[in-house]
Specification:
The protein is built from one helix and five strands. The chain has about 100 residues and is of the alpha+beta class. A hairpin with a 2-residue loop joins strand 2 and strand 3. The termini are far apart.
Length: about 100
C-alpha cells in the first residue's frame, strides 16, 4: 500500500471518529450528570408527574441544578420527575444564505 493511501485511510478513520464523537449521544444519569453552570437545557428522558399530567419516558427539555441535585422542567416548576438519560441539544441548522 502506498504512503498516500495509508494517509488517506488514516484521515478517513479520524474523520469518521470525529463525526461519531461530535454527535449528541444519550448519557445515563447514573454514570454522568451534565456539567452545567446555571440553568442550561438538555434533552432528558423523563418519568414523573406535574399535577394532572403524567410522563412516562417522555423526551423533554430539562435542566439540572447541581446545587440541589434536582431536575426541572421550566413549564412545570412543581413537577416531581426522575430523568434516566440526558443528551446535549444538537446545534441548530444553519440557514441558507440565499
Amino acid at each position: 500500500m502506498s504512503v498516500d493511501m495509508e494517509c488517506y485511510i488514516a484521515y478517513q478513520q479520524g474523520y469518521e471518529a470525529g463525526k461519531r464523537d461530535a454527535a449528541p449521544r444519550w448519557h445515563r444519569v447514573e454514570e454522568e450528570l451534565p456539567s452545567m453552570d446555571g440553568y442550561d437545557w438538555v434533552l432528558g428522558i423523563v418519568t414523573g408527574e406535574a399535577g394532572y399530567l403524567r410522563f412516562h419516558k417522555a423526551v423533554m427539555m430539562v435542566s439540572f441544578d447541581p446545587q440541589y441535585k434536582e431536575w426541572f422542567i421550566d413549564e412545570y416548576p412543581d413537577a416531581r420527575i426522575t430523568v434516566s438519560h440526558w443528551m446535549l441539544l444538537p446545534e441548530p441548522p444553519k440557514e441558507d444564505s440565499k
